[in-house]
Amino acid sequence: MRIDVLTLFPEMVRAPLETSMMRKARERGAVRLFIHNLRDWAEGKHHVTDDRPFGGGPGMVLKPEPIFRAVDDLLGPGGARRRGPGVEFILLAPQGRTLTQAVAADLARRHWLVLLCGHYEGVDERVRQALVTDEISIGDYVLTGGELAALVLIDAVVRLLPGVLAEGAAEQDSFSSGLLEGPQYTRPRVYRGMEVPPILLSGDHGAIARWRRQQALLRTLERRPDLLERVPLTPDDRRFLEEVRARRPGRPRPPGDG
Ligand code: ADE
């Protein structure tokens, strides 16, 4: 996969993409990442990239010209729309569809993503009209710019690419099964009086798998009961959840839950 990031603040995205798993993913050739300064496509002595909004109002708007020129250079005239289904030109903005594990998995199947980090009050609408093929938000809150959102998207997508994580690790994720991940332990067996659940030391792989599934169900029931309505549950899962619910009548709901 190739990913290009268009930003006014390249220094904001550089270090995280040169660290830890993103660095490894690049070294292993799973992804090629390029960071571009939009200012390089701005004209005039001052390389201006923003201007006041027509009609008045607070803040500044990203001008269309540097963005169109950048896309012409990177993707050719017509941009991602011309290049076809494996290519996306994605605007990071709070108005976009929300990034989820399913969206990340879908994007991980493309071969080229160009990410535009919005800034200030927004981006000239003609960029959306003519260039953008997808618009993504990382949540219902407003950041000062799209850079942190681009990093979140890149991390969520790149870790799913073949060869980045250990075999099977992505399948174990929270959300991949539709459930939250349950507790994990490592050595020592007893720490400050807290013991590792004995079943994990039993060597009985069937029993361990059942326990893990039940812990994932429990955690999801406690923290994100909405997810349980969307996951395919086995008859064993349903039986287990019924038992748990029966054992805990009138349990107070966590704050913020419905
Ligand atoms: N830019 C500003 N806020 C954002 C958000 N929540 N997601 C993506 N890009 C953004």
TrEMBL record:
Keywords: Cytoplasm, Methyltransferase, S-adenosyl-L-methionine, Transferase, tRNA processing. It is found in: Cytoplasm. Its main location: cytoplasm. Coiled coil: none annotated. The keyword Methyltransferase applies. Pfam families: tRNA_m1G_MT. GO terms for molecular function: tRNA (guanine(37)-N1)-methyltransferase activity. One of its GO terms (biological process) is tRNA N1-guanine methylation. InterPro entries: Alpha/beta_knot_MTases (IPR029028), tRNA_m1G_MeTrfase_C_sf (IPR023148), tRNA_m1G_MeTrfase_TrmD (IPR002649), tRNA_m1G_MTases_N (IPR029026), tRNA_MeTrfase_TRMD/TRM10 (IPR016009). GO terms for cellular component: cytosol. Its EC number is 2.1.1.228. CDD domains: TrmD-like. Residues 1-229 form the tRNA methyltransferase TRMD/TRM10-type domain. It catalyses: guanosine(37) in tRNA + S-adenosyl-L-methionine = N(1)-methylguanosine(37) in tRNA + S-adenosyl-L-homocysteine + H(+). S-adenosyl-L-methionine binds at G118, I138, G139, D140, Y141, V142, L143. It comes from the Bacteria. Specifically methylates guanosine-37 in various tRNAs. NCBIfam families: PRK00026.1, trmD. Homodimer. Belongs to the RNA methyltransferase TrmD family. This is tRNA (guanine-N(1)-)-methyltransferase. The gene is trmD.
